[in-house]
Design brief:
Mean pLDDT: 97
Order of helices and strands: HHEEEHEHEHHEHEEHEHEEHEHHHH
Helix content: 40-55%
Bound molecules: nicotinamide-adenine-dinucleotide
Structural class: alpha/beta
Radius of gyration: 20 Å
Strand content: 15-25%
Largest sheet: 7 strands, mixed
Number of helices: 14
Distance between the termini: 47 Å
């Protein structure tokens, strides 16, 4: 029996290798693209509220910057590891190439449990981490953004820390900022809005009707929570939702507004009136038409892929499906819209935010959403076309498109010196 590859970096490299084989990339190009360009490990002290000093470890990895400055989120989680950050940085390179925006891929993270930190501790940790990675960070070099357990306030502290060091405000150093300090309209919803656009397009292609489709979503944070609302607006019935504490299920449909209010009030979805409690493992196997993993990596594996009931999987999270599970879904005729396409709405509006920050000229929400829709639908159809041409699935179609674009830029720039 196949063994699941659980190390996210191994998973990212395995996906890349398959694309490189199909593209017939040279050995030297493979060697360049397989490895991150830069990896920074920082160990830094933070003064806690009780006056003790605790040491924290953080990372910033840039995978490839041949198409433009490095771009990628910052994750705060006890599970952060160098290999996870490497994988996420590599996926960012491909993601930016798929939506054809002029960025390379990066990612950052700090090993910490934000739920155990006071606001003051979180701010001091954030500002010190920002200082440590400022040797890489900059509006022309490396532009971070939010990811798991980081939010607009944390982006504001990073922007302020960088600006204090410079002596003037540098809004374009980070995206996902609050509107009041140069954030972009539509950024908070951008990833989920991208999920909504690709879901609409893939449903059209598969002849599925949103108002006759049921959806289960794992994760109820920025991406999962807003995807629930926007997929509901598309006409879908949301039947299952979950957060880190577990899931809730109602085959007749969950009122998303009520779920949002409940999660705000109680901190968790658990106990949402009118729903049955399910575990996160059970949630992924619930009867539904569309499954949206929107939490973290390695959720759909060889262990549960055969029991997944959905006919369509939209990867709102990064890396939720292992290569073994992917093969099972492929054999079962389940369509998977891959992460590097499905959740690219976030980085696309981050690109708009960066451009607005550099130009000091801000766009309306209507303009943002219209441009996002154009990019997401165009990218979706480019991936479908590539997959059809090469008689492969959407993931490989997306990889073939992205890796070829990055390889072309890398080839044109040549090897220095
Ligand atoms: P978030 O911190 O806002 O939300 C994460 C959600 O997942 C929370 O509801 C949390 O309770 C839940 N969760 C955490 N661990 C879980 C577990 N073990 N089982 C079930 N649920 C769990 O994070 P987010 O920004 O929504 O990011 C979610 C995913 O989307 C990540 O994979 C991230 O890399 C990806 N992503 C985010 C963005 C963005 O713009 N925020 C963009 C692209 C991709």
């Amino acid at each position: 029996m196949a063994i699941d590859v659980l190390n996210p970096y191994d998973m990212a490299v395995a996906q890349f290798d398959e694309a490189a084989n199909r593209l017939g990339l040279s050995q030297s190009m493979r060697a360049i693209l397989r490895k991150p360009k830069r990896e920074l490990i920082v160990n830094f002290p933070v003064r806690m509220d009780n006056s003790d000093v605790e040491m924290f470890t953080g990372y910033r990895v840039q995978h490839n910057i041949n198409r433009g400055p490095a771009k990628g989120g910052i994750r705060f989680s006890p599970e952060v590891s160098l290999d996870e950050v490497r994988a996420l940085a590599m996926w960012m390179t491909w993601k930016c190439a798929i939506v054809d925006i002029p960025f390379g891929g990066a990612k950052g993270g700090v090993i910490c449990d934000t739920h155990k930190l006071s606001r003051g501790e979180l701010e001091r940790l954030t500002r010190r981490y920002a200082t440590e990675i400022s040797i890489l960070m900059g509006p022309d070099s490396d532009i971070p953004a939010p990811d798991m357990n980081t939010n607009p306030q944390i982006m504001a502290w990073i922007m302020d820390t960088y600006s204090m060091h410079k002596g003037y405000s540098v809004p374009a150093v980070i995206t996902g900022k609050p509107l009041a300090i140069g954030g972009s309209k539509g950024r908070l919803e951008a990833t989920a809005r991208g999920v909504q656009f690709v879901t609409r397009e893939v449903m059209r292609n598969l002849g599925m009707q949103p108002d006759k489709s049921s959806v289960v979503i794992q994760g109820f944070g920025n991406v999962g929570g807003i995807s629930a609302r926007l997929l509901n607006e598309l006409g879908c019935k949301i039947v299952g939702l979950s957060d880190i504490q577990g899931g809730v299920y109602n085959p007749n449909g969950i009122d998303v507004q009520q779920a949002t209010r409940h999660a705000k009030e109680h901190g968790v979805l658990k106990g949402l009136p009118g729903t049955d409690a399910v575990t996160n493992a059970e949630l992924l196997e619930l009867p539904c038409d569309v499954l949206v993993p929107a939490a973290l990596e390695n959720q759909l594996t060889a262990r549960n892929a055969a029991r997944v009931k959905a006919r369509l999987i939209i990867e709102a999270a990064n890396g939720p499906t292992t290569p073994d599970a992917d093969r099972i879904f492929n054999d079962r005729g389940i369509t998977v819209v891959p992460d590097i396409l499905a959740n690219a709405g976030g980085v696309t509006v981050s690109y708009f935010e960066w451009v607005q920050g550099l130009q000091r000229f801000f766009w309306s929400e209507h303009e943002i959403n219209e441009q996002l829709e154009a990019i997401m639908t165009r990218s979706f159809h480019a991936v479908v076309q590539k997959a059809d041409e090469q008689a492969t699935n959407l993931r490989m179609g997306a990889y073939l498109l992205a890796v070829a674009r990055v390889a072309e830029a890398t080839e044109l720039r040549g090897v220095y010196p």
